[in-house]
Amino acid sequence: MAKPLSIMYVASEVVPFAKTGGLADVAGAMPQIIRESGHDIRIMMPKYASVSERVFKIHDIKRLTDIPIKVGDETHLGSIKSSFITNLKSKVQVYFLHNPEYFDRPGLYTDPKTLKDYPDNDDRFIFFARSVVQTLNRLGWIPDILHLNDWQSGLIAAYARTIFRNEPQFKKIKIVFTVHNAAYQGIFDKSAFYKTGLPEEYFSPDYLEFNGKLNCLKAGLIFSDAITTVSPTYAKEIQSSPEYGCGLESLFYKLRRKTKAILNGADYSVWNPETDELIAHTYSAADLSPKLENKKELADYFKLKFDPKTPIIGMVSRLVDQKGLDLVVKSLKRILAMKCQLVILGTGEEKYHMLLKEAAKANKKQMGLELAFDEKLAHLIEAGSDMFLMPSKYEPCGLNQFYSLRYGTLPIVRKTGGLADTVVDLNEKPNSGTGFVFEKYEARELVATVKRALTAFKDEKCWQRAMIRAMNKDFSWNKSAAQYIDLYRKLMKK
Ligand code: ADP
Questions:
Q1: What domain range is 354 assigned to?
Q2: What is the pLDDT of residue 494?
Q3: pTM for the complete prediction?
Q4: Ligand 1 contact via 321 beta carbon (within 6 Å)
């Protein structure tokens, strides 16, 4: 058998500790599967205020306290604490970077009060990046692979390949950088570049400069040995158009040979209607009837009239342009003119909070709205809805469609990124369809597709067959984790 690998997996959010979106789900699930395959994978993330030391049994690592870390001309202290993610089969060590000034805040990247990014996010993630590098130095553990995720860890690759490249830890290490969302690039004023302490020559368009500013995502792309995207379609999209590549399309194209698409998976230990502890009525493809009880509970939650024959369309999403919120807002009247109920759970941009609030107030009998981040309600919406709405403008992978499929809640999606790779249109392919897919990013198309879904819902037998087909789809992590292991091994041979 091949020698087990050692991997440091770095992410700015990890379930169950902190989450704003899909990255956290991935970072909480994928390493466990890699660990189950016998590899030594450890995670590092910041310790935010929401990460309770008591709940997660987090302890100090004495020899890793008060590490001096430079941000610009200042030196700040970082301490490493530790805990584990455990499931029945594995135990993954997690290192938390603790610095109250930077991370003891109510939000991860944005202030929940103002909904604006924290103004010192550059300092915070420069500090984080340097801490990861310095922690690796001090741990005396030399991993084979350093796996980084998104802009928040992009600078780590730059440090490892420039000022720290001669340290023993980094001489042989291979760096993998995963792009979960190319639209978030960590762009900061030029002054932030000087705070990184990186040599001046790297502030050029060939390296970290982007329109006169520092771009942290570019650091991860350029200085890594391999890039991965979270779905095949998204890999193509970001290489071919500014709409998806967000100004980095030429760079993505240039780096295509070191890019590999590995579709995300779903963590069925958390998202499984047969075992879900957050719903009152578990169900399976063999016994769908309890799903109706969840539907009743969902209707009650939002004070909607429960009617088995009126489909509930659910949506759980960050309320931002990416997720197609402008289409939803534009289509609301026309959707609600049809026989259906709509429930939305999300937080995000203020304009969408306002517009949706107004709409929900004006359509109390048909629409439910919860402007919050609520894990339990997200599960109830997956379990209780008949359809799930994801009309994304772009979608690197998307996880909710996996969950919806598993819960027999047929997804209505736009054909982009991971949604294009995972949902099959029922009208187009009646014998293999699992949802409803539209192509053009237009309100008209969305409304027509919702209409198709509502029509299909009336054919009970056909609908149930589609539900069962969807529920039997397997998007578990095993396949994707095996692809990551394969990639790690290939890099090590180079
Ligand atoms: P993204 O990472 O772009 O936000 P994904 O579909 O990949 O989108 O993942 C989103 C994850 O965050 C899903 O697990 C989803 O259920 C969860 N989520 C998003 N908004 C909320 C919310 N308001 N309350 C609870 N869970 C949410």
A1: 290-474
A2: 86
A3: 0.93
A4: no
Q: Is 389 exposed, middle or buried (0-12, 13-18, 19+ CB in 10 A)?
A: buried
The reply to whether 270 falls in a domain is no
CATH number at residue 218: 3.40.50.2000
- On whether both 319 and 430 belong to a single domain, the answer is yes
Residue 33 and residue 89 share a domain: yes
Check pLDDT > 80 for residue 352: yes
Q: Nearest C-alpha to atom 2 of ligand 1 is from which residue?
A: 22
**Ligand 1 touching residue 422 (CB < 6 A):** no
Residue 86: is its pLDDT beyond 90?
Answer: no
CA-closest residue to ligand 1 atom 19? 317
In the reported structure, the alpha carbon of residue 285 is separated from the centroid of ligand 1 by a whole-number distance in angstroms of 24
Q: Do 254 and 310 sit in the same domain of this protein?
A: no
What lies within 8 Å, CB to CB, of 72 at 6+ separation is 123, 194, 195, 197
Which residue owns the Cα nearest ligand 1 atom 26? 375
Q: Among the atoms of ligand 1, which is closest to the Cα of residue 23?
A: 2
Question: 304 and 236 share a domain?
Answer: no
pLDDT of residue 481: 96
- The set of residues, in sequence order, having a beta carbon less than 8 Å from that of 191 and lying 6+ positions away, is none
CA 52 distance to own-chain centroid: 22
How far apart, in whole angstroms, are the C-alpha atoms of residue 484 and residue 474?
A: 18
Mean pLDDT score, 411-434: 98
